[in-house]
């Protein structure tokens, strides 16, 4: 509609109002249009004040604290323009007709959008605890039509009216649940002016992520050796179960003030940090390790002491590691630092840093091991280190009956093992040949035994320290040999039987002759007694 047409329409409306408000029995009246107006903050509005009084000397107008200008007028009406309206205001149209004053009171309501809507960023919240989400709003009018809503994502949670203070706060209380971790919350302002003939207006805060955590009451488990030897590297690890969310926890592993480079592995509700520590000469003594796990703004700390120590192995000395049998050998064991030593087979005595042993060696001592053990007490535990030396005794070749038996008797066709081992240091060379044809002695597994190996063998062991010999006889029993043995045994049995019979026969003859001779002698003695005269009384 063109501006001229709009102006003509307003004049026609005012004329109509004036006609409707002609003086009647009730006297002059004052009216206002619009009676209740709502405009945006800083906006302008035109207010028409009219009266039914038609007297020339009447007085009427608009009473307000706002800036106003009269933009149009007629005999019984005035139009005032109010501009740059910042606050709600009360308007009064009045008229004085022949000394009688009448008035009409109206209202001017200002609406405005908030300057801002903010959600205070929620910090980490412990699981299972109540916490608050606070929405702040600055500006916004009229407050009676202004409410604050809390949204989780696009899901409305709660709605509360906005108080009148400036700036205003609306607090929502919630229970920290694990399923809410990582959820996006926002505050949304709703200005509902539909009852005033306007629209429904919205404004929203920036979204904010909620973070929920669970940190157990237990401290981290710090697994570390109590003692670390200088020059060695050892692993340490720090772990904690019952975390949520475990992937967002951080770990600080340090030796004293020195941070340790570490790797972290996460489980669904746990983590483990692994690092290595190395002992150096500069760090000998007791140092502390610290493991600090941080989740949200909470920390869990465990410390442990670690002792770094130096422990060289003991010195074990054989004055003559290679000797001939019959030689006296000296063995010496010595510790370093504060360690004490024990030399096996040395005479018993109080622990010390040195131990000695002397012995006259024989062939049986060849390859004998001497062990020196050093003990050092570190961090309440006793540590040990050993050194071993082997003695070499030189002796001539030996062919013992135990290691090279001289007689073997086997049935033909059986499976047997023929042993012949020569001993000596240096190791002797063994040569066994059969008498007559010089065949080699078949040392080892015989599968099967054959009659061809039977015979007498001359075994000789040679080394730079002498020679040893042994005669080895191998007998193989086969069928012909068995018959000869049976015949020989039978002959022996027969001869033995005949010899026994002859012995028994001769024994009996001797006994009979002895008994006869004894009887004869007795008879002769009796006869002599009879022939001898009696002695006179």
Kindly summarize this structure in a few lines.
By secondary structure, this protein is mainly β.
Which terms summarize this structure?
ICAM_VCAM; mainly beta; 2 helices; single chain; 41 strands; Immunoglobulin-like; 537 residues; rod-shaped
Mind explaining what this structure looks like?
With 537 residues, this protein is mainly beta. It folds into 5 domains: 20-111, Immunoglobulins (Immunoglobulin-like, Sandwich); 120-213, Immunoglobulin-like; 221-309, Immunoglobulins (Immunoglobulin-like, Sandwich); 315-395, Sandwich (Immunoglobulin-like), CATH 2.60.40.10; 399-480, Immunoglobulins (Immunoglobulin-like, Sandwich), CATH 2.60.40. It has 2 helices and 41 strands. The strands form 11 sheets. Strands 2, 4, 7, 8, 10 and 13 form a 6-stranded mixed beta sheet that branches. Strands 11, 12, 14, 15 and 16 form a 5-stranded antiparallel beta sheet that branches. The termini are far apart. Mean pLDDT is 85; it is low at 1-26. Residues 34-111, 318-394, 405-477 form the Immunoglobulin domain. It is found in: Membrane. One of its GO terms (biological process) is regulation of ruffle assembly. Pfam families: ICAM1_3_5_D2 (PF21146), ICAM_N (PF03921).
């Amino acid at each position: 509609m063109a501006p001229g047409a709009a102006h003509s329409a307003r004049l026609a409306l005012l004329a109509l109002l004036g006609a409707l408000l002609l003086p009647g029995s009730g006297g002059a009246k004052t009216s206002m249009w619009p009676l209740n107006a709502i405009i945006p903050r800083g906006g302008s509005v035109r207010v028409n004040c009219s009266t039914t009084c038609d007297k020339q000397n009447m007085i009427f107008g608009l009473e307000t604290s706002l800036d106003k200008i009269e933009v149009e007028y007629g005999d019984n009406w005035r139009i005032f323009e109010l501009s740059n309206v910042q606050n709600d205001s009360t308007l009064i149209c009045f008229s004085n007709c022949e000394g009688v004053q009448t008035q009409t009171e109206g209202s001017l309501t200002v609406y405005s959008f908030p300057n801002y809507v903010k959600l205070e960023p929620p910090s980490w919240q412990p699981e299972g605890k109540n916490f608050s989400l606070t929405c702040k709003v600055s500006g916004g009018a009229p407050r009676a039509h202004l409410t604050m809503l809390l949204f989780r994502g696009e899901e409305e949670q709660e709605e509360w009216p906005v108080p009148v203070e400036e700036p205003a706060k609306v607090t929502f209380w919630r229970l920290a649940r694990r399923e809410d971790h990582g959820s996006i919350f926002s505050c949304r302002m709703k200005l509902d002016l539909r009852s005033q003939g306007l629209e429904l207006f919205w404004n929203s805060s920036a979204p904010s992520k909620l973070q929920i955590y669970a940190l157990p009451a237990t401290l981290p488990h710090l697994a570390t050796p109590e003692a670390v030897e200088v020059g060695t590297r050892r692993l340490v690890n720090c772990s904690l179960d019952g975390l949520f969310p475990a992937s967002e926890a951080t770990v600080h592993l340090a030796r004293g003030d020195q941070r340790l480079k570490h790797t972290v592995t996460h489980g669904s509700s746990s983590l483990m940090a692994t690092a290595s520590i190395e002992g150096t000469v500069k760090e000998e003594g007791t140092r502390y390790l610290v493991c600090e796990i941080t989740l949200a703004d909470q920390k869990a700390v465990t410390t442990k002491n670690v002792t770094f120590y130096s422990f060289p192995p003991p010195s074990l000395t054989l004055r003559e590691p290679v000797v001939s049998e019959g030689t006296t050998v000296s063995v010496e064991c010595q510790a370093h630092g504060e360690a004490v030593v024990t030399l096996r087979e040395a005479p018993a005595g109080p622990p010390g840093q040195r131990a000695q042993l002397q012995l006259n060696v024989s062939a049986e001592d060849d390859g004998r091991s001497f062990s020196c053990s050093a003990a050092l007490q570190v961090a309440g535990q006793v540590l040990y280190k050993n050194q071993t030396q082997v003695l070499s005794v030189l002796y001539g070749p030996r062919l013992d009956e135990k290691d090279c038996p001289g007689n073997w008797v086997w049935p033909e066709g059986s499976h047997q093992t023929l042993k012949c081992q020569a001993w000596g240091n240096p190791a002797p060379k063994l040569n066994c040949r059969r008498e007559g044809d010089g065949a080699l002695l078949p040392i080892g597994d015989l599968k099967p035994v054959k009659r061809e190996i039977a015979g007498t063998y001359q075994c000789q062991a040679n080394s730079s320290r002498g020679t040893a010999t042994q005669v080895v006889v191998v007998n193989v029993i086969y069928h012909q040999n068995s018959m000869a043995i049976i015949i020989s045994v039978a002959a022996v049995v027969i001869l033995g039987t005949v010899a026994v019979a002859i012995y028994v026969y001769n024994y009996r003859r001797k006994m009979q002759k002895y008994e006869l001779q004894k009887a004869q002698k007795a008879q002769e003695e009796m006869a002599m007694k009879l022939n001898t005269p009696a002695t006179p009384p």
